[in-house]
Amino acid sequence: MATRLENAVSPYLQSHAGNPVDWWPWGADAFAEAGRRDVPVMISIGYATCHWCHVMARETFADPAIGEWLAEKVVAIKVDREEHPEVDAAYMTAASAFSDQLGWPLTVFATPEGRTFYAATYLPPQPISGVPSFRQVVDAVTEAWTTRRDEVLQSAEGLRDAIVAASRREPGALPNADALAAIVAELAGFEDPEHGGFGGAPKFPVAPTLLFLQGRGAAGDADARSLAARTFQRIAASDLRDPVEGGFFRYATRRDWSEPHYERMLNDNALLLEVAARAGAHETAAGVVAFLRDIMRVSGGLASGQDSESDLDGERSEGGYYALSADERVTQPKPALDGKVLTAWNGLAIGALAVASRLLDELSWAEFAQELADELIASHLSHDADDAPVLLRASRDGRPSTARAALEDYGDLAVGLLELAITTGEHRYAATARELVDACLVAGDHAAVASGAPIAAAVPGGGDPVLAERGLSAGEDPNEGSAPSGEAAIARAALMLHQLTAEPRYRFAAEALVAPLAPLAQQRPIAFGATLAVASALVEPSRQLVVVRPDGAEPGELEARARTDQREGRLAIALTASAASAWAEAGFELLAGRAPQGSSSTAFACTDFVCRLPVTRADELDAAD
User: What is the pTM of this model?
Assistant: First the structure.
């Protein structure tokens, strides 16, 4: 049996390397082999901390008889969805034609050209409650391929066209303040009045939506503020939070937040850290930071996730480790980590640590964020022959993945570095973020070219080449239940750059990226929290607050006001005089000419970069602001 997965960077792929299934990694070679043999392709998509992926691996893919039989029927490809998000998005979109109960493991059957003609999620070894067995499905698929080829190809072609059509962005308009208030009211209508959170079971924390609500609250919407506060308080007090190690589990299987699915993901915890910081929940935030530092820290950054299963006293247990006390856990092996370092998710963590550091006055958290940022920049960022930035999607133990970086990698890292620059006063992080955003912004038409306004975003060098060669590129999934989409992340970074540089093109870019998604966001706000958060910031007045202190002086009340200012539409930064000069020399116009008056810290409060007279006392700032 082939062992093509043995040297994979992905721990998920490595966990299947010893299967009796003749697995191929994602790539053109597998499709070429299917074409040579004239058989379908089976694409099995999952991730290392996925419980049902483990179940299907044990029940089905570990069976030698299944492996031998499957090798005759199909070419089997194993994909880590976290390593290849564009592949996952394309095939998940195709799978939606066959079921509205989607998840992982995702099992897709496609032509040698990669076009889907059937898809399902977990398939049991024996038929259960109307769900066919894995063998039954494969037999039906191969029978259709053999005896009804024309029908299969016609269906696959139609699905391909539907996927490409679904990726098109139609013109849209940004929601105004009234529309955003209506969205808040709609979200309030989804609230579970008994247990908190949104909807029934399974129940997810939907951190991007909470961040949107917190932003509207900061803009003065009392209903949004109270809804966000209630929801987060219930989540933080629930079984979704591990009281011993501090991290949050992925979701709860019951409406009352009990019986979690026990995997702990980096993206969830990074975003919930930011929610906690914006809520002023110091103890909860500190628990998440401890989880990131003590559990998730690996060579090169932070791990992608921690498994839900472990061996407890020699027996496999789902969640049993997390039922133990701190003393009891010492005697047991910890659940396995998925040690992949994903650029996007580490970017989320860097940004969340920076925000939490300045809002909750924890200097060491910013130092931790700097440590992560410096490692990630050193190992995941390079430049091509034209000096354009090139990011890695993932690495593990210093080994780079061959997967292409996604738009979310550029966007999430850019936002994280901008938040870090604002917290630390070090402009080098903002300069790198600007470089990443500029590489992704693409002129969309002649008018945009003439005005210098980029109106679209794309991954430098293009997306997944295997999908592109087969006409299957559908871009990244714009849905944001658990993390910002790539477009929303680039838009947020662009808006922050506008505040720092005063360059209109960045604001135009943010508006142009969000507007086409606005109709979808208004229809399904629970799934577009990050997009709505950018829209919320865009609808508010563009305000800036700069506090500059003499070199060597200690921060005072003005600096504290800048650190904790959360008003929507506001960018606030406090830094030394020499740091302000360095920012200005690097092209960040907001800092140009900002110098302290005498020996006092000085505040500059601005609207659309038009500043009031500088002040040196907090009461004067209140009057001027």
Answer: 0.95
